[in-house]
Design brief:
Order of helices and strands: HEHHEEEEEEEEHEHEEEEHEEEH
CATH class of the largest domain: Alpha Beta
Helix content: 10-25%
Strand content: 25-35%
Distance between the termini: 24 Å
CATH topology of the largest domain: Alpha-Beta Plaits
Oligomer: single chain
CATH superfamily of the largest domain: Pseudouridine synthase I, catalytic domain, N-terminal subdomain
CATH architecture of the largest domain: 2-Layer Sandwich
Amino acid sequence: KPARKRGPRADVPQSEVHDQDGIRLQKVMASAGVASRRVCEEMIAEGRVEVDGQVVTELGVRVDPKTAVIHVDGLRIQLDENMVYMVFNKPKGVVSTMEDPDGRPCVSDFVRNNHGERLFHVGRLDVATEGLLLLTNDGELANRLTHPSYEVPKTYLVQVRGPFPQGIGAELKAGVELEDGIASVDSFKLVDSTPGHVLIEVVLHSGKNRIVRRLFDAVGFPVLRLVRVKVGPIGLGDQRQGSIRNLGKQEVGHLLASVGL
């Protein structure tokens, strides 16, 4: 199978391949927050920029930001300024919905939604679980992040009663029989141990309901506290509980790349 041909078409100047009524590529990149215009020009000249699957090295190229798909160093840059990508650090007791008929605190109580359009929360955390919840109005991204075929890994910190016998981590990795089939964790790491309590980090890509709690119940160690700290390439870091932050341009690029966008 021949390798995919990269680079400009030899017979036509690149500036004619693209939209002559559009905006200069380096200006589009700079306004999308990639870098200063001068640095963007250097990136183009170094062959680090692709437009619609074609490497561009000429500075005269113009593109239509509404339709062009631009990758820098293999990461897609989001050109649509109406797209919103946020991380919410959900406190315990908050419901993972935009509204709750029973009047319990929910996601919309924390979001100042000035965008006027619907925000999707990506996946759910049960009421007692804390941590990272992605919010976006990018329906395709939300769809892919929750679809099993993309196997997006999620990282949790799990607190259980100690001591925690050796061997249970291996059991969780090998697979545990639950009522809806066998489930397992991708990785298991003991993070901290204090008298009577153990803190464990697990990574898994299953999106099944309450999966972490059910796994630990099944091995005889009910979860005392559960925090999701990472979804795909996006981490919570030291973000304050109850706060919401917008993802940076590079984070958005990594998130889109993780599900093939």
